[in-house]
Amino acid sequence: MPKKRSGGGLSPTQQAAKFLGVSVLAGAVLAGIALPAFGALGLAAKGSVESFDELPANLKTPPLSQRTTILDAEGGQIATVYSRDRTVVDLKNISPYMQKAIVAIEDSRFYEHGAVDLKGMLRALNKNVQSSGVSQGASTLTQQYVKNVFVEEAGDDPTKVAQATQQTIGRKIKELKYAIQVEEELGKKKILENYLNITFFGEQAYGVEAASQRYFSTHAKDLTLPQAALLAGIVQSPTVYDPVKDDVTATNRRNVVLKRMAEVGDITEAEAAKAQESPLGLKVKQPKNGCITAVKGASFFCKYVERVFLSDPVFGKTKEVRAKLWNQGGLTIRTTLEPQSQKSVQDSLKDHVYKSDKVAAAATLVEPGTGKILGMGQSKPYGYGKNETEYNYSVNASMGGSNYGFPTGSTFKPFVAAAALEEGRPANQSYPAPYEMPYPDTVQTCSSKPWTNQGNDKLENESESEKGPYQLKKAMELSVNTYFVQMLADIGMCPVVKMTDKLGVVQGNGDKVPEVPSSMTLGSTGLSPLTMATAYAAFASRGMYCTPIAIESITQTVGGTKKSLEVPKSTCSRAMSEKTADTINTLLSGVTDSGTGKQAGLSGRANAGKTGTTDSRKNAWFVGYTPNLAGAVWVGSATQKVEMTNITIGGVYHSQVYGGDTPGPIWRDAMTGALEGKEAPPFNLVHIPNPPDKDRGDENDDGDNGDNNGDTGDNGDGFLTGLLTNGTTNGGNSTGGNDGGTFFQGQSIGNGNGGRG
Predict the structure, then answer these.
(1) How confident is the model at residue 3 (pLDDT cuts 50, 70, 90)?
(2) Which residues of 221-236 are buried (b: 16+ CB within 10 A; e: fewer)?
(3) What is the DSSP code (8-state) at residue 756?
(4) In the chain, fewer beta carbons within 10 Å around the N or the C end?
C-alpha cells in the first residue's frame, strides 16, 4: 500500500493519479468537450469512465433545502427547524462585495471562460508538474456548483455524499458535461446566485444569507468588504478557516482574498490595505434549530406539529415522501396556537407545579366547534437533561406521547351519562348506589358475549357516607362510583362504546377503550389530555365533536416561488343531541359550583367540568370547559411510580391529592388567563326536576366534601399488580429520573377499584 509523505499530503502514487486526472481532463477540453460548438467528442479511458455522450443530458437540480419557520396564530415565530440552515436569496439581495470576493478567490476568470477554464486548467497542470504535487485545482465556479448539486441531492446519506465528492475521473467528467449544460441554460449571473445559495460556509450555515446571519448577524445584502472577504475565504475549507474556532487563520485567509480582489481590479490597493487592518468584527448568532428552541414553552406543541406533518397523508402518500418534503423545508407553517392561551397555560403550570417535583403536569386547551389547539404545555421542559423530557404528556403515543396515556378516573363518567341520556334515560335517573357493591354478574357488550364478573369483584365509593339512592345530578357532583356502575349495567356497554367512538376517545396507544366496567365507568384506561379536551369540547359546542387540528396554513417557497399547501382540516360531526349536551352541561356546572370541582370554578362566566383521581393517587385530572374554550389538565407520575400522598407539589404540601385541589386550580388559572378580555357566553341549561323522593344524599351533603369524594377507577396499582383476579395487566418499566426520561406506562384493562374524584 502506498505511503503518505511525512507530515501528511499525497503519496507519489496519489500525486501521479491526480496528475493523470488533470491531464485527461485537459486533453478532453482540448478535444472540444468544453466547446459545444465543436461537438462533444467521446472520452473513454478503458474501464475507468463511461462515454461522455452516454451521460444523461440534463442535470437534475433538486430544490435547495431551507429552514422552515413555525408561527403561532398571530404570526409570531415559535421556532425554526431545518436539516440545513439556508435561506435562498436573489443575487440583487447579495452584497456586490460578496459577489466580487467569491469570484476573485474561487474563479477570477469566471466571466471570461466557458463551463471549463482551459487556460486555468493548463496553468494548474503546469504548476502541479513544477511542484511535483497537486498545488492548484482547476474547477470553475460552474463546476463547483454542479458538485454541490450532487452533494445536495445526496442529502444526509453518507454513502451518497461520498459518491458525490469522490476524487475520480468519472465524477470530473460528469461535472464537465453538466457544467456545459448549466452554462448554456442559466448564464453567469444565475450560476453565481445559485452557487452562493448552495455552498457550505461552515458553522451549520448553507448559503450566503445563513452565513451572514451566523457570523455577523446581518443580511447578505448588507455585507461589508471585510465581511464578504472573510466569507469568501471560508468556502475553500470551512473547518480550517472557521473564524469562530481560529480567528488568526481566518484573518490571514480573509486578507488573501482582499489581496486577490485588488490584483484583479475589484478594489484598489488602498481599499484592500484598509480592510486588512480591520478586525474580524464577528457577531456570532448561535444556531437555533428545532423545537427545543421554541419560545413561549411551545416546544411540545412544535413537535406535535412536526408529527402531524410527517404522519398525515395530506402531505404525501408515504412517510418517505412526507419526510423528504419536511427536510426540503422552505415552509412557513402558521399554526392554531394562540399566544394568550399558550402563555396562560405555561404561567399556570409554572405557578402550580415545579419542574423538579416528583410528579409532572400537562395541560391542553381546545376551541369548541373548530378543534383548534390553542395551548399546550407541561411542567417539565422539553429536553434531555435532568427534570426534562422529550415526551409530550398531552398527546397519544403516535404523536410523541406516553405509551398508553394516563388513567382518567371519574372524568370518564360524563361519557356514560351522555350515553344513558341518548338511550332515553331521564336526567333525574335514580339508582340505589350503595356505599359498596359487587360488580354486576353480567354486563352486555357490543358483541353477543356479555362481560361476566368471574372474580366476584367489588367496588366502593370514596366515603361510607356516600350511599344512595342518588339521582344523576347529585351522583355526578359527588362522583359516586356505584351509581355509574349501576347505570352501565342498566344500559349496557355498547351505548358507551358508541358515544366514545363519536367523541374520538381512544387509549393513548390508539386502541379502543376495552369493554370492561372499570374502563367504561371509572376511567381505569389511559387517555391523553388532548383526547379528553377535544371530547369535552363536544359538550361545550352542544354535541358537535371536531377532530383536533394544529395547522392553519402552509406556504412553501421553492426557487423564489411561493405556493400554498393543502393542510389537514378538522372534521366536525354530531356526537349527541343538543338536548343531551345541554343536560351534561347542566350536570357538570354543578360539579364546579358545589361539587368535587369547586376549587376549579371560574368567576364571572359559565363553566363546567369534572374531577378525577385514580387509585393510589398516581393520577389526578380536571377536565372542563366554557361555551368557547375546553381544557384538560393531568397531574401525576409519568412512570406511574409516585403515589401522591404526603407530597409537596409546587411548594404546597398535600396529605392526599385530589382532582379538585391540584389539577383543578391549574385549569382555573390557565382558563382565566386564556379567556381574559373575551366574551362570556352562557350555556343552554336545562331544568332537571327532583325525583318524587328526595335523595338521601341531599340531606347530609351540601357538596363541600368535594375534595373527599370521587371516582374509583383503577390506575397505577391496578396497572402493576392487576385488578383483582379478573384483571389483565400490560405494564412495563421506566428509566429516567424524576419522571423526566423515557417511560413505558402500564395499562390495566381489568376491573376493580380505581381512583377518586
Answers:
(1) very low
(2) bebbbbbbbbbbbbbe
(3) B
(4) N
- The pLDDT tens digits for 137-178 are 458 899 899 888 888 877 766 777 677 676 667 667 777 888
Strands 68-71 and 331-335: what pairing? parallel
CB neighbourhood size of 714 (10 A)? 35
Other Cβ atoms less than 10 A from the Cβ of 314: the count is 15
The DSSP output letter for 205 is B
CA 694 and chain centroid, separation: 53
Nearest-CA neighbor of 481 among 757, 751, 750, 711?
711
Q: Report the C-alpha gap between 463 and 479 in whole angstroms.
A: 11
- Bond into 627 cis (ω within 30): no
Distance CA 127, CA 73 (A): 61
Q: CA 476, CA 595: separation in Å to the nearest integer? A: 8
Q: Which helix (H) or strand (E) holds 70?
A: strand 68-71
Q: H helices then E strands: how many in the chain?
A: 24, 24
Give the C-alpha separation, 368 to 517, whole Å: 29
Distance CA 685, CA 25 (A): 86
Cα–Cα dist 629/633, whole Å: 13
pLDDT for 220 = 97
- Residues in the chain, overall count: 757
Query: How much is the mean pLDDT over the chain?
Result: 84
pLDDT at residue number 691:
63
Measure the N-to-C terminal CA separation of the chain; round to a whole number of Å: 77
The angle at the Cα of 297, spanning 294 to 299, to the nearest 5 degrees, equals: 45
Mean pLDDT of 352-372: 98
Spatial CB neighbours of 237, under 8 Å, sequence gap ≥ 6 = none
Tell me the one-letter amino acid at 101.
A
**Going along 492-607, which residue ranges are E strands?**
526-527, 544-546, 551-558, 561-565, 572-574
Separation between Cα atoms, residue 42 and residue 35, nearest integer Å: 13
Bridge partner list, 85: 205
